[in-house]
Amino acid sequence: MIVEKYGGTSVADVDKIKAIAKHVADIKKRGHDIVVVASAMGKTTNALIQLAKEVGYANNDREMDSLLSTGEQQTVTLLAMAIEALGVPAISLTGYQAGFITSNHHAHARIKDIDLTNLKQQLDQGKVVVVAGFQGATENGEITTLGRGGSDTTAVALAAKLGWNCYIYTDVDGVYTTDPRIYPQAKRLEEITYNEMMQMASLGSGVLETRCVEIASKYNIQLYLGRALKTDLSKGTFIMETKHLEDMPITGISVKEDYAIMRVLNIENDGIYLGNLFQLIADLNINIDTISQQISKDNKINFTFYCNEKQSDLILQNYKEEEFGYKIERILGFVKLSVVGVGISTHSGIASKTLNTLTKNGIKYYQITSSEISISLTIEKKDKEKAVQVLAQAFDL
Amino acid sequence: MIVEKYGGTSVADVDKIKAIAKHVADIKKRGHDIVVVASAMGKTTNALIQLAKEVGYANNDREMDSLLSTGEQQTVTLLAMAIEALGVPAISLTGYQAGFITSNHHAHARIKDIDLTNLKQQLDQGKVVVVAGFQGATENGEITTLGRGGSDTTAVALAAKLGWNCYIYTDVDGVYTTDPRIYPQAKRLEEITYNEMMQMASLGSGVLETRCVEIASKYNIQLYLGRALKTDLSKGTFIMETKHLEDMPITGISVKEDYAIMRVLNIENDGIYLGNLFQLIADLNINIDTISQQISKDNKINFTFYCNEKQSDLILQNYKEEEFGYKIERILGFVKLSVVGVGISTHSGIASKTLNTLTKNGIKYYQITSSEISISLTIEKKDKEKAVQVLAQAFDL
User: Fold this and answer.
1) In the 3-class helix/strand/coil scheme, how is A113-179 assigned residue by residue?
2) Domain ACT: where (chains A, B) (predicted)?
3) Where are the beta strands (DSSP E) in chain B?
4) b/e per residue, A274-285, with b = 16+ CB within 10 A?
5) 3-state helix, strand and coil shares in percent for chain B, rounded to the nearest 5
6) CA pair distance B256, B197, nearest whole angstrom
7) What contacts A313, CB < 8 A, 6 or more positions away?
8) Which residues are within 8 A (CB) of B365 and not within 5 positions of it... i.e. 6 or more apart?
9) Do B14 and A70 touch (CB under 8 A)?
């Protein structure tokens, strides 16, 4: 009993859809129950966004969600038809039909619950169920999308609710110690723990969003990440509770792009301003990152946080200086670099080795934060490639 | 307070969508409430059907409905965005969101009811509501489509339920006395009665489906049919209860293409066979046409009916000779020609003039049927153009 998820490049054309249908039909014929989650075909989503821009789209996320959701709906109906053409009964379900009930945060909705009644009935009738990724609906039937990595989240949430394993098929071979485009000698990891993966994901490794790994971890669902239609599972990465391999102190280096520093200076230390600011940020459904504040001698606060550039746009659009009483400043041009590994808490010297390596190579770092299994630094964009390379060499990744 | 409907060619590209948005926004700015119904953009539907065929589609109408419904969903979100970009609040609604509850006959569902709660709330908030044509959903949330002329039906049904007038904008100038492609001298009608239009529609005039006119007539909704963005209403055709013009005996000639004769010979005259056959046809949601039966001297029945070729395919696929006990025969290659006009019942000699004109020109006719306002004849496909021309001349159309 498995959930498989195919990303946009894996279903980009008719031949690929037919190849996946064949693979899925074979699994079903061998007697397994299978739910398939699919994204929109190839460049469909970008083409729809382009059309929206051309007609004059202006942040109307409610309409954009309804527009974009058609992409996945098209893929899953075609995939269901292709599976049926091979003599295996199949049915497609939109997010709404699959029971995905979400919050009403258009463009980045959260899954509140999944009502599996319909999906289970279809499985009981012996059908392969093909579910549109990335989408759901509010209780009022408004179509929503789940934001970045939404289709992965659809798959993992379904697997969690069903108690099945989840195979995420994509156009990369698995999780690497760092981005192979920046550091070609990067190695593929055969296994990685949920915690490490969450750090890698939230810190920008790009292959899986944190929320997916979070759900998998919470429900103890075994995740597999690998290249579509490569059936040799030793060629991908398993994400699980504990690794079987001997721990390396450092699992990888991840990079989070397009970082903005947001800064407010000389705030009264009465908690009112920060309360209002956090309320605004929560209303915008933004998770900010790396908050820091210093209190000056005259009991004023200097407050700084990081977020990505798009989120910073959203904050600036909604922040009314005359209402909040303070000027908010934005500084662009940063990336956040993280060294991740379960060994960090048990192997001493990782932090100093990281900082020394950067300093030795003339790379300036700004904010530093750390967790049990990660050390993160903000550096300037221009230093990104060099920093990844010198750290990867230093930690033998 | 008006419902406007735009067909696929009227929304075929971004520029056309923006032009319609401008027109709609202007109407709204002048203080009118407006609901817009739109079809899928240009060739979208055909492109989706092509994709479905390529993945191996085999009469899976449930999946096809879900696939095709995405076309209209894309148009209406884009149109809503384009209207909002002009500073006029707008919202798109899918068939489901607009409250269209249908039967579960996929590919040719019937509207059971429209729950206007959501749509009215949006209108009350001062929004232009843009509704996806051609689609609805069953009570179980299964996506359905309404079949040929579905978007027109969406518009007229909404107008009926709201009690508003309905403007159908398309790529023709209005209703003609006969098809201008066959008879270039055909004249545009400024007005036509519901009854005449229903005959014209059901008999194949191609510009409006019978069901739309039926609904308009039942709820006494004034229909207008004209070219998109031509705002001079004297250039189209009004469809209404009674005409203001002096009646011409004949309003027009319509042609229904691709006719099949279905025939069963020597049936026992006990009603069992015909009961079973009509049950099958009803289950397939097919309206058959021009039924005739003759009883022979030995009390056996010869039974004949007409339907279009696609429907005849469907019947043959589902008709099991061993179950029904009789062989069903199909003869292809016919069209049905109809002379329509409220004058037929009051002007004598129309039938004889029709038949004489055909005979004089060497055109054979088969089945003849007539109503208060029409005379219909089945003729061979090859005679179509000639028959239309000689009749149009004979009746000065």
Assistant:
1) EECCHHHHHHHHCCCEEEEECCEEECCCCCEEECCCCHHHHHHHHHHHHHCCEEEEEECCCCCECCC
2) 262-342
3) 2-6, 34-38, 90-93, 100-102, 111-114, 128-132, 135-137, 143-145, 165-170, 191-193, 223-227, 237-240, 252-268, 289-295, 300-308, 329-340, 365-371, 374-380
4) beebeebbeebb
5) 40, 30, 35
6) 14
7) none
8) B355, B358, B377, B378, B379
9) no
CA distance B303 to chain A (A): 37
* Alpha helices for B38-146 (secondary structure H): 44-55, 61-84, 117-124
To the question of whether residue A149 is assigned a binding role by annotation, the answer is no
Residues 6+ apart with CB under 8 A from B353: B394, B395
Cβ B137 vs Cβ B111: under 8 Å: no
pLDDT digits (tens, 9 = 90+) for B242-284: 765 445 667 888 888 888 888 888 888 777 887 888 888 878 8
Q: What is the pLDDT of residues A68-112, one digit of tens each?
A: 999 999 999 999 999 999 999 999 999 999 999 999 999 989 999
Q: Which two tokens stand for residue A55?
A: 């007609």
Of A128, A191, A171, A147, the C-alpha closest to A311 is A147
Test A67 with B84 for CB contact under 8 angstroms: no
| Residue B240, CA distances (Å) to B162, B224, B356 in order | 17, 9, 32
Dist CA A298 CA B63 (whole Å) = 68
Q: What is the ipTM of this complex?
A: 0.71
Q: Does B190 touch chain A (CB under 8 A)?
A: no
CA distance B57 to B105: 18
* Residue B128 near residue B92, CB atoms below 8 Å: no
pLDDT > 90: what percent of chain A? Answer: 48
The pTM for the full model equals 0.74
B55 touching A (Cβ < 8 Å): yes
User: Which residue in A14, A41, A50, A55 has the most chain B C-beta atoms within 10 A of its own C-beta, making it the best mutation to test that interface?
Assistant: A55
**Chains A, B: CB pairs < 8 Å:** 118
Q: Which of B11, B30, B28 is nearest to B20 (CA)?
A: B11
Is residue B181 marked as binding?
A: yes
Three-class SS string for B232-246? CHHHCEEEECCCCCC
- Do the beta carbons of residue A114 and residue A100 sit within 8 Å? yes
Q: What are phi and psi of B147, to 5 degrees?
A: 80, -170
- 3-class SS at B51? helix
Structure tokens at B1: 């307070």
Classify B359 as helix, strand or coil: helix
CA nearest to A64, candidates A318, A56, B193: A56
What are chain A's domains?
2-171 (3.40.1160.10)
**Residue position matching structure tokens 């055109």:** B363
User: Which token pair is B329?
Assistant: 């025969």
Q: Which of B199, B212, B194, B186 minimizes the C-alpha distance to B373? A: B199
Whole-angstrom Cα distance, residue A123 to residue B140?
17
